[in-house]
Automatic annotation (TrEMBL):
CDD domains: TrpRS_core, WEPRS_RNA. One of its GO terms (molecular function) is tryptophan-tRNA ligase activity. It is an enzyme of class 6 (ligase). One of its GO terms (cellular component) is cytoplasm. This is Tryptophan--tRNA ligase, cytoplasmic. It comes from Turnix velox. One of its GO terms (biological process) is tryptophanyl-tRNA aminoacylation. Belongs to the class-I aminoacyl-tRNA synthetase family. Its EC number is 6.1.1.2. Pfam families: tRNA-synt_1b, WHEP-TRS. The keyword Cell division does not apply. SUPFAM superfamilies: Nucleotidylyl transferase, S15/NS1 RNA-binding domain.
């Protein structure tokens, strides 16, 4: 990067300016840490201040570490933008587009990288088998530093997986399964340890729940997670309310993150206000950040701090880990890598995520075959035409049809999925017939999950949730 203040900063986009400020800030810190000559440090600081001024001039916003510029289209042309139709944060997802969130724009806004064909092919070469359907179909569509994870794996260096669940209800729905289905596949093909965080503390802070009820939900949700087929010898599931008080390494990392993130930063990233509870909501991002560092689990990693973490999650969780990646080098930790998934749509359409509080927006893992059939037939948003005649003539729209969207997640056979798409688009296949395929796909899947869950006793949950050494050497 050129250090001359005379370089043409006006030609840079807001995102490019943001990246230049970030790089220059890291350079200043490195110079200070290396006790460089005062003149060199002063010149680097002047360049940093110049970049920050250019950034504010271009965006109307102060630079905030870990928070890429928002409203890019508005910044660039002063006009209202389509992006304003999409609202995404860790608690709310809204869009006015029946197709759902525009993920290409979200990649630009969040500053992540698209999972392209080259990366998918590289994953296939590394693991020696066909990539998961979630990769093949773009359900996991974005990443941060997955190439570094593959570099490590190809050089026989270990990494570990971290994902989580916010236990806001006793019963989970099928959308909650997506990260766990994919994480289980990742764990199997790469043969690595996995930690699963149950953020019962978060739900106590954000929801009208007692700590006892939040912890009860965590243990019930753990049963559904275990029923996905995770190996107890390779997986540690923990409740924040439980584990935080027993692990000094975990709490030390929380404190380190807290020290290096300002209130101004978390207000900008998460929208906190002065009325949010002290040391509760405001400090929670540090608790979600801490499992990204292997030293939070000394019983698993033997106290080692240099083991990189890979986090599969929905894209709405990315703000937590942008913050984490920004602070990691400053506390001597490797940045976690991420794989982002799209959102699982509600039955009523892709404008919002499913809601555990609305029984008709979701197919729950406790639903009977009859309930599954009724919900799909009655509530699944259709991309078909108003009449059979019109549908035969003009065909259906798979881009907005919820039944087809669900099949994209759960139907394994690529050829069968393509046949259904062509038949529905041509008008050969009617909406009721497409819903029937989905019903016949989900009923046995959920029934099998329910049978596995029956085998998950309280003793099995205790085994998964006991801090212990896993079947790996570090």
């Amino acid at each position: 990067m050129a250090d001359s203040p005379n370089c043409d900063l006006k030609s840079l986009s807001p995102l490019q300016l943001f990246e230049r400020v970030t790089e220059q800030g890291e350079k200043v810190r490195a110079l200070k840490a290396g006790k460089a000559p005062k003149e060199e440090i002063d010149a680097a600081v002047r360049m940093l201040l110049s970049l920050k001024l250019s950034y504010k001039t271009a965006t109307g916003q102060d630079y905030q570490a870990g928070l890429p510029p928002r409203d890019l289209a508005l910044i660039n042309n002063g006009m209202a933008k389509e992006e304003e139709e999409d609202f995404v944060d860790p608690w709310t997802v809204q869009t006015s587009n029946a197709k759902g969130v525009d993920y290409d724009k979200l990649i630009v806004r969040f500053g992540s990288s698209k999972i392209d064909t080259d990366l998918i092919n590289r994953i296939e070469r590394a693991i020696g088998q066909k990539p998961h359907r979630f990769l093949r179909r773009g359900i996991f569509f974005s990443h941060r530093d997955m190439d570094q994870i593959l570099d490590a794996y190809e050089n026989k260096k270990s990494f570990y997986l971290y994902t989580g669940r916010g236990p806001s209800s006793q019963a989970m729905h099928v959308g909650h399964l997506i990260p766990f289905i994919f994480t289980k596949w990742l764990q199997e093909v790469f043969d690595v340890p996995l930690v699963i965080q149950l953020t019962d503390d978060e739900k106590y802070l954000w929801k009208d729940l007692t700590t006892e009820k939040a912890y009860e939900y965590a243990r019930e949700n753990a049963k559904d997670i275990i029923a996905c087929g995770f190996d107890v010898n390779k997986t540690f599931i923990f409740s924040d309310l439980d584990y935080l008080g027993t692990s000094s390494g975990f709490y030390r990392n929380i404190v380190k993150v807290q020290k290096h993130v300002t209130f101004n930063q978390v207000k900008g990233i998460f929208g906190f206000t002065d009325s949010d509870c002290i040391a509760g909501k405001i400090s929670f991002p540090a608790i979600q950040a801490a499992p990204s560092f292997s030293s939070s689990f000394p019983q698993i990693f033997n106290g080692k701090e240099n083991i990189q973490c890979l986090i599969p999650c929905a894209i709405d969780q990315d703000p937590y880990f942008r913050m984490t990646r920004d602070v990691a080098p400053r506390i001597g930790q490797p940045k976690p890598a991420l794989l982002h998934s799209v959102f699982f749509p509600a039955l009523q359409g892709a404008q919002t995520k499913m809601s555990a509080s609305d029984p008709n927006s979701s197919i729950f893992l406790t639903d009977t075959p009859k309930q599954i059939k009724t919900k799909i037939n009655k509530h699944a948003f259709s991309g078909g035409r108003d009449t059979i005649e019109e549908h035969r003539k003009y065909g259906g729209n798979c881009d907005v049809d919820v039944s087809f969207m669900y099949l994209t997640f759960f139907l394994e056979d690529d050829d069968r999925l393509e046949q259904l798409k062509q038949a529905y688009t041509s008008g050969e296949l009617l909406t009721g017939e497409l819903k029937k395929v989905l019903i016949e796909t989900l009923q046995p899947l959920i029934a099998a999950h329910q049978e596995r869950r029956k085998q998950v006793t309280d003793e099995v949950v205790k085994q998964f949730m006991t801090p212990r050494k896993l079947a790996f050497e570090f």
